[in-house]
Design a protein that fits this description.
The protein is α/β, with parallel strands linked by helices and 457 residues long. It contains 16 helices and 19 strands. The chain folds into 2 domains: 292 residues, Zn peptidases (Aminopeptidase); 150 residues, Alpha-Beta Plaits. The chain is globular and about 80 Å long. The N terminus is likely disordered. The structure holds zinc ion. The site of zinc ion has 5 residues, from loops.
Amino acid sequence: MVFAFVLLAAAVPDWSALEPEILRHFRALVQFDTSDPPGNEAPAANYLQRVLEAEGIPVTVIATDPKRPNVIARLKGSGAKRPLLLMAHTDVVGVQPEKWKFPPFSATVDGGFVYGRGTVDDKDNVAASLMTMILLKRLKVSLDRDVIFLAEAGEEGSMQYGIAHLVEKHWPLIDAEYCLAEGGGVRKRNGRAERMLVGTTEKNPTAVKLIARGTAGHGSAPLPDNALERLAGAIARVSAWRIPMKLNDTTRTYFEKLATISTPAQAARYNGLLDPAKSPAILEYLRINEPLHYSMLHTSIAATMMQGGYRVNIIPSQAEAVLDVRTMPGESVGVFLAELRKVVNDPSVEVIHTPRRDVAIGEPSRFDTPLYRILEEAQKRVYPGAVTMPVMSTGGSDKAYLQARGMQCYGIGPASDDEDGPKGFGAHSDQERLSVEELYRFVRFNWDVVVSLTSRQ
Ligand SMILES: [Zn+2]
């Protein structure tokens, strides 16, 4: 007993001593400009390779383009159980530098926050997974399964360099029972951790192009088949289309759990979704006031780009629009397109499907697995007072490639304030930031979860 106690105690990291190291790695990663396009993840990948190898952890680099490497490292376990994969992406979305208060790749620390592109998408997960690997090795934790680290390139829209290539050509290097990656996080309200969202599924991103055609002519003599006007009419009909609500296990549980921590009025709405008498009014309320929740309940369509015309006095013969479409998991794109064509209801407007990735997400990850329970238990220790709930992300992530192959994937992330997103501090914003304290807490959480799942006692 005494020995067991000593061994366990030895495996507890000295967190306050580790804080400078955590912050150093996190800031270094943010300081690499890995904007995708063009990507250029190589400096970040080289950094990770150096750090891992310095700890004695062997690294495999897989690159179809030398500027865009993926870093894979594996800590061997006893093999009693199938591996755990820790996945995060090193690329980030682009920036408009002039909009930033602090230079986007400076990782400036101000008022307890680190500012920079990638601080919450997804260099937080890269840094946390890196620290967990380093500590498992340093503290010689005895593992009952392999732990695989994957820092992938190309998540932000060029998956052929990253996950698509790895899944297709190097599956044995990343094959695992479970994966932890982005797509979740803790939400705080009034400074208190309120709910931990664990990403268990996500909508399928796809796109549709509308091309309206008409007769070209002089702007002084309006024509009845004006392409721009036809396009506008089609978009207006699509915008007015109310696609029926659909729930799955994840969203049903999500709204049930959310109701338990909401105001009575909110709770009545979340609980009333399945009541046919109440749901139309509830959905209309959510559409206006809680667009994210509305999107979780429907296949969504957002017009995001339009093009047409080049001179004030010329009626153009063609005009185009792009619709960002997010279908519900399991929904047939073919059926959706047939419905969409009926809604557009104009033979002069062509409806063209332009797929965005070649996988459709598989079954949602289950929440009756040992890892999901461990996430809940770790939440109670690290984020006491919060509630863990599964969530369906409306955005897409690379987890879909793994879930399509049956891997149980869970999206996790650090805590952010509910108020931060609307204030413009969230992912993809031009003031993206992460609280330094929450970075440390997330690293502790990551460690707690991984050790609970993998350590042999
Ligand atoms: Zn991301």
